[in-house]
From TrEMBL:
Signal peptide: none annotated. This is Transposase. Transmembrane segments: none annotated. Residues 12-82 form the Insertion element IS402-like domain. It comes from Nonomuraea thailandensis. InterPro entries: IS402-like_dom, Transposase_6_like. Pfam families: DUF4096.
Amino acid sequence: MDTLPVAGRADLTDAQWAVLEPLLPVGRKPGRPPTWTKRQLINGIRWRVRVGAPWRDVPERYGCWQTIYGLFRRWQRAGTWQLSIP
């Protein structure tokens, strides 16, 4: 799926995604193509962090909540979410 079926008002814009996408870690596992795009999953993470709701309440348009949470935790453990604040 290349496009989001319904975009939330705070989802990443095309311009924001164009800046962010090259900075993301690249998957290393060959196999079945993903069901949800990285953009959808990141928008789901952003929705959850912004709203403060439980992971199970992330809207389905962002993907399965377990997948969204799994990506968040994997990148959290790898340090992907670390901010460089001067």
